């Protein structure tokens, strides 16, 4: 969980005053958070949890602007003005592709396979270190992994 580092006390005070936790979440993590959200609600019955979507092409602006109190997103986060909280979810990478794609027919894929296929791009506003931690720029053997269309959303509902 990531939150503004220099505003933690103010964030807690605002949370108490407005009785709402505004949480930014990537779409794929929304349902995995449900047990944690239910535990939070049982411990803090008067506080409503509102969800906002994390925009992959600009993962930190809404947090810095105060639109979210905290965000659940990929590590690493190397932003000097943000504080990284405890790890609440872990998991491996999953390759999503069309059912008729040759890699789907194989049932498995290696990072080396990405050198022959285009991967999503989060655009120039996503920090390079953050994006490449999940999708490297090169395969283990050095082949460039081509990036494709810019994806700005991973919709979810909870």
Automatic annotation (TrEMBL):
Pfam families: LysR_substrate. InterPro entries: LysR_subst-bd. Keywords: DNA-binding, Transcription, Transcription regulation. It comes from the Bacteria. The keyword Metal-binding does not apply. The keyword Transcription applies. SUPFAM superfamilies: Periplasmic binding protein-like II (SSF53850). Residues 18-130 form the LysR substrate-binding domain. Belongs to the LysR transcriptional regulatory family. This is LysR substrate-binding domain-containing protein. It comes from Streptomyces violaceochromogenes.
């Amino acid at each position: 969980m990531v939150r503004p580092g220099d505003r933690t006390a103010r964030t807690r005070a605002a949370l108490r005053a407005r009785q709402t936790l505004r949480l930014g979440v990537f779409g794929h993590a929304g349902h995995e958070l449900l047990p944690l959200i239910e535990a939070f609600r049982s411990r803090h019955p008067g506080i409503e949890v509102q969800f906002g979507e994390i925009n992959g092409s600009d993962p930190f602006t809404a947090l810095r602007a105060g639109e979210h109190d905290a965000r659940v997103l990929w590590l690493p986060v190397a932003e000097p003005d943000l504080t990284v909280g405890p790890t609440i979810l872990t998991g491996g990478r999953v390759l999503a592709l069309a059912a008729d794609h040759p890699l789907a027919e194989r049932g498995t894929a290696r990072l080396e396979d990405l050198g022959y296929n285009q991967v999503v791009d989060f655009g120039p506003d996503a920090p390079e270190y953050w994006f490449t931690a999940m999708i490297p720029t090169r395969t283990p053997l050095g082949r460039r992994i081509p990036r494709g269309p810019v994806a700005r959303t991973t919709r979810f509902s909870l």
